[in-house]
Amino acid sequence: MTICITGAAGFIGAATALALLDRGETVIGFDNLNAYYPVQLKRDRLARLAGPRFTFVEGDLADMAALTALPETDAIIHLGAQAGVRYSLQQPHDYVQSNLVGHLNMLELARARQTPHLVYASSSSVYGGNSKLPFAVGDAVDHPVSLYAATKRADELMSDSYAHLFGIPQTGLRFFTVYGPWGRPDMAPWIFTDAVLRGRPIRLNNGGRMKRDFTYVDDIVAGVLAALDRPPSGPRPHRIYNLGNDRSEELTRFLSIIEASTGKRAIVEEAPLPPGDVLETHADITSTRADLGYAPATSLDVGLPRFVDWYRGYAGL
Predict the structure, then answer these.
(1) 148 is catalytic
(2) Choosing from 95, 120, 148, 241, which is the catalytic residue?
(3) Same domain, 119 and 25
């Protein structure tokens, strides 16, 4: 098969592209290489994908002409988006262009080409401040606590309408706190590891009394591929699944693993909970296991030291 991946230079996009190449697929990668974080990291990810079955196209999701110029493919994995909860407080228009206009453009592209399956990235952020745990796909998601979360929920609703109106098979995946080698510099594994290794203080929000369902990137990629291989059917072919580790870990334990992996103690500065953040996430993956055969296999005790080892090498520390 030939598969288009948007956000191909991103953390999850590049890892998914590599997994598809490893199983013999042809991949068309699309990314705008924006400067939300250092572009060199994105180029380094792309360098790992180089080969005869990978083609990279630089372009913006909000540019319909650029998307229309892409070759036709057997499926689309739409992972491109403006990420980051806190950044959405500073640059809201970036989220409208990438996450709303961009998602609509991908739907229109799939509609025009009658693409057999569109898999797209949503987020655990759609659950907002829900107090019921674990978060299940059937839970109410009507009160997002950040613009980023609101755009992701809007994407799900747009996809559902296109499945209803035009019969476009789609699968939405709510990712839960993805981490691992080649991750993003704005996320806790990178920020904490870099600070500990360099002897710089860490801002620990809410005294570390926050819990996240940390999910290793290889498990996420396995879930994306399982979804790709199982397009939904029926009169409204749209399904949504959680991709998490089915375990909520406190941030203090997360930091203790980094300390053990680096052999250094963290310098901690306490800070309040930032606007848009939630206290806890935990994925109910019952339907994901049943429908997709999804089985996350990497615990935080295994995955986080792998990230630290990779980061030491990449950063030269």
Answers:
(1) yes
(2) 148
(3) yes
